[in-house]
Amino acid sequence: MIQFIKSLTNTEEKKTLLSNFFSLSVLQAFTYILPLLTLPYLTKVLGIENFGLVMFAQSFIMFFNVFVDYGFNLSATKEVSIHRNNKEKLTEIFSSVLTIKVILLVVSFVILSIIVFSFDKFSNNWELYYFTFLTVIGQAIFPIWYFQGLEMMKYITIVNITSKLLFTMAIFIFIKVGSDYILVPIFNGLGFIIGGIISQYIIFKKFHQNLNFHNMNLKKHFKNGLHVFLSISSSTVLSATPILLIGTFLDYTTVGYYSAYEKIISAIKSFFYIINQTFFPRLSKIFIENKNKYKKLWIKLSLYTVILSIVTFVILFILSKIFIKYYLGESFLTQLYIFYTLAITIISYTIINSLGLNGLLVIGKNKQLATSQVIPTIIFIFLSPIVIKHFSFKYFLFIIPITDLFIILIRIYFLREYFYGKPKI
Prior knowledge:
mainly alpha, 17 helices
């Protein structure tokens, strides 16, 4: 055992990977686990319906988050990783990406305002949607892509944890009755914004990074992020659309039940994403240097993560009733079928990320990455309203893992084509 632990840190490369894995793990843990700490409290204090309303607003604003991120958390991370030793190039990347994100932020705010004041469903709770939009502002200035590309995640991890802890505590202190639901997006948004401001300060002071608006290539970086954006935005549609459809065709109470279970599953999924994301910068670099070495490492990493996801699903299935009863309450047991269906997607999500993030994206198949996500998503968007409206909610739930399977099959085809020289579509 001691020998195994030593083998994990016997080179600088392994030490860096382990450090980044730990930092990303802690960062994602606080991003997902802190909401899990407040989840049972909020469902009880706010009530399932008000909780569902808050989750509906978060799902709606999630589209703007993805639009402003524009896939830079992956495409810009890759660029920073490749050019980490070129200060001039880093300045060009940093300045270009930040400028594009600010432009997209302004566009998002305008679109939000048009939607909110055009439909009664949104205008009746306009403050909720604007306060929830604070997270988009925070995400826009939160440069996780810069730190991850440099493999210096410890700085941003400390900042993120501190800000999120403070505003999580605020939820327990200030939210006491159902009408306090408006404070939830305020506290969440301020946590993101303050974290983003401090992170920018570290970049300028610690890394001596400058902004140079005369040395930008907006068109190039906008184009580089396009296919990744299409892939990620499609993935967001798959995760956010169910809540929007449930809130539109059913009620906010059902949204509350679904959202509570979805938060638990998302927290578990984040662990597997961390593993893939930790290796992403390194695999991108190895691919350029030695394609055979990359292939072997990618296959081994994919195999281990998928096996681990299957074991996790089995454990969840066995312990689900006891866990849900004492964590969320007995009332949630009546909707346990939602939890079972979403738990299946832990396995499919892990496979999708292995094939996409560390597979297609690393080898430069950005267009194929987008295609594999966009086509199934379009089918999902077309079928879902029909099924939920004319059949039943349970039938609608099964469309989610089926869509994941479709994505997996397309990505396997594209990777098989690359590795074994199959003819192109």
